[in-house]
UniProtKB/TrEMBL annotation:
It comes from the Bacteria. Residues 90-139 form the Antitoxin Xre/MbcA/ParS-like toxin-binding domain. This is Antitoxin Xre/MbcA/ParS-like toxin-binding domain-containing protein. Pfam families: Xre_MbcA_ParS_C (PF09722).
Length: 142
C-alpha cells in the first residue's frame, strides 16, 4: 500500500499539459485511482455535479469512484490527469486556485460568451483552455 504522502507527491508531479508524450507515459506508468479524484475535489471549489459533468459520469458514479479499490477506464484516467495538469497551469497563471476557479466560472468572449468550465468535458476543450492560459501568460488579458 502506497502512503498518502507518496501518492500526493506522484499526483503533484503530473507533467505539463502541453507535453503530450509525458502525459501519455505518466498515465501508462502510474495507477490513476480514487486518490486522483479526491485530489481534484480538494483542488477545485466546484461541486460534485460540475466535476461529474466534466468527466461525463453521473454524480453517483463520481462518488463511488472516490473510494479505494475502484478502477477507471483509460479515457477517464486521461481526462482526470489532464484536468489536474490544467489546474497546475491555471493556478500558476492566476497565483491561487480560487482565482483560477473564478476565471473558469466567468463568461469569456474567447469561449463564445460561455464560462471556460463548460469546456472541460472534452480533451480538446481542456487543450483550448490551456492555450488561453498560455495567451494570458504572454499578455492577452481576457
Amino acid at each position: 500500500m502506497v502512503s498518502q504522502a507518496v501518492q500526493l507527491k506522484k499526483i503533484k508531479n503530473i507533467p505539463n499539459i502541453r507535453n503530450y508524450a509525458d502525459i501519455f507515459f505518466y498515465i501508462r506508468n502510474h495507477t490513476i485511482d480514487w486518490s486522483y479524484l479526491n485530489y481534484l475535489k480538494e483542488l477545485t471549489t466546484f461541486s460534485d455535479e460540475v466535476i461529474s459533468d466534466w468527466l461525463n459520469i453521473s454524480v453517483k458514479t463520481l462518488r463511488a469512484y472516490r473510494k479505494p479499490e475502484t478502477t477507471f477506464k483509460d479515457n477517464l484516467k486521461e481526462h482526470i490527469v489532464l484536468i489536474l495538469s490544467l489546474y497546475e497551469h491555471g493556478t500558476s497563471v492566476f497565483e491561487h486556485k480560487e482565482n483560477f476557479d473564478q476565471w473558469l466560472n466567468t463568461k469569456n468572449v474567447f469561449f463564445d460568451g460561455n464560462e471556460p468550465k463548460n469546456y472541460l468535458d472534452t480533451i480538446m476543450g481542456i487543450k483550448f483552455i490551456d492555450d488561453r492560459l498560455t495567451a494570458i501568460e504572454y499578455g492577452d488579458n481576457v
